[in-house]
Amino acid sequence: MSAQQILSPNAAKILDSVDKDRMLALAGDLIRIPSFKGQETDAARFLAGFFQERGYDVNLQEVEPGRFQTIAVLKGSGEGKSLMLNGHIDINPIANRWQRDPWTPTIEGDRLYGAGIRNMKSGVASMIEAAEAVRLSGESLKGDLVVACVAGELQGGVGTDYLCRHGPLADMAVVPEPFGADNIVTVHAGSAEMVIHTIGIARHMNLAEQSIDAIEKMCKVIPVLKGIKFRHAPRPDLPGLPRFNVGTIIGGIGPDHDRSEATYNADYCSIVIDVRFPPGTTAESIKEDVVNALEGIRREDPEFRYEIEMPPPPKYQAFTMIVDPFDLPKDEYILDSVQRQYRVVTGREPDGVGTVLPWSYSGDDTSKLLKAGVPGVLHGPAGGIDSPTVPDEYALISHMHQVAKVLSLTAFDVCNLPNETPKDQ
Model's pTM, two decimal places? Predict the structure, then answer.
């Protein structure tokens, strides 16, 4: 039995309105616009124009001075529940050794290549196509469909944090992170990023006996941190948590790490670390465990001095916000809705629902939305890179198309739920 045969005529009309070529054209336009974290404004302005031309209510939000994100709303009658489709427009750095031009969209078989397409311009294009299918079908909605193209997810959720404080919000959400079109993820790790500084005394190498080398002190820190047994409530479904990583190390003179004088030892050495931790553990307890470990070094070495900044200040271009763990209650309507629409589109059960590894070791914006009262799930198209030595990034076109279909039906379902307590206008 086909999806159309088991759908209502209204929902079938929406599903028939999903257009793969239109979706790929938008994805290509997004690839052509560099939008590294902190540099999302050009992409945001492009999307604002895209939505305005199509009749959405558009809010170009200034999340920081001169830094914008785009929130578009397909208005309903005000009588139903609302749904947010939330995807980030900031992208990861471009790795060396790309074989293709990263800013030119390239289709090869089922793969669409381009900068940022995996994480997560493919998901952004899919969710926008879902909204467009609803709009172009001509079917009316009782509730609003909010399409949030946010900044700074790769900094811990800067844009979604702004959205949660300033609105507009919705009753439910889907975030199309690149975890695979056959997975519906409801659990993710928390992330506590921090900068640890070791502080010494800088002296010219002729007077090395009077110095305290901050880099040497950091060489004591890293193995101690790697040996920490963080306090946590074990989760059998997340056996790899907590996990620890040193992502950056830099040393020099002063807090800005001046490196112009190799004849002087460093009096400031800094590492940026990320600790991923399971639900039930907090960033505060992670920091306490780190402090306890560093205090152990200090007791053995009276010259050892350190400072901690959590989260890191912006100059380190790391997470500037803590990401709380996420564990969606299993009885939330949005989970049921996405599962039902998945079955309609594919005719089968999802491969994974709930905790799906390794994706649940990631952190994302769903925890901030849930804290703001917006329960959501993660459901987006998969992608990858060609190989460790050829890091050209791609998304799977078939996944993008399938996700767009599932999200279009989810939007029609959720946004036509009766709203017993309409929101104030």
Answer: 0.93
